[in-house]
Amino acid sequence: MLEAIVLAGGFGTRLRELVPDTPKPMALVAGRPFLDILLTALANKGFGRVILSLGYKAEEISDYFGQRFCGLELVYVVETDPLGTGGAVRLAMEQCTQDHVFVFNGDTYLDLEVDAVESQWQRTRRPIIVARQVSETERYGRLAIDGDLVVGFNEKGICGEGHINAGCYLFATGQLGEFALDQPFSLELDYLSRAVKKHKFGVHVTAGQFIDIGVPADYLRAQSELLGR
After folding, report:
1. Is the pTM of this model over 0.85?
2. Residue 170: burial class (beta carbons within 10 Å; 0-12, 13-18, 19+)
3. How far apart are CA 101 and CA 113, in angstroms?
4. How far is the C-alpha of 188 from the C-alpha of 153, rounded, in Å?
5. Residues 152, 197: contact at Cβ < 8 Å?
6. CA separation for the pair 29, 112 (Å, rounded)
7. Fewer CB within a 10 Å sphere, N or C end of the chain?
8. Closest residue by Cα to residue 59 from 38, 34, 76
């Protein structure tokens, strides 16, 4: 069974002017909560179980989706204090039932080639970072790639064309065991940036549709681009 963690605990600060008092994953896109679109896509790609990592207004999300949605079993993990992306994934991994898990951002739509990523894991048993080729990398974390491996991980601010971190990963469920439960940390800054220099991390360069609704301009663009999803 394919299993995923969806990070859906953000405050959505940058979207406040458009969706005040609404958890970012519940912002309406094409007339539906964005998380509805994301979970429907995961169900259609063969996932059977999703662990939702929640924080801000968690009950609004869990009350809406319940324990099952589109055939998915849903499990909720709620942060009492903000844990950062790394701490949130570490906590959610405690609820995983498989030996590996996909990780998605709850504010990003990615039409991921799930079967290809799963096949890569089965073949290599290496953690995988999903990358995307873009014309301008300044807004995103930029990756250095050597063949089929990620060898460098940089945060935002580098301009020009290149591969960005799409915010999606496939990890072994014990991947973050060096960190204590409830320890706040950044997955990108505190873990990946150094881990890719010490261990082999595979890369999958996705060609699928990619849209991050975390900023107003792209949230507005999503209204038309995700219509009918």
Report:
1. yes
2. buried
3. 15
4. 8
5. yes
6. 19
7. N
8. 76
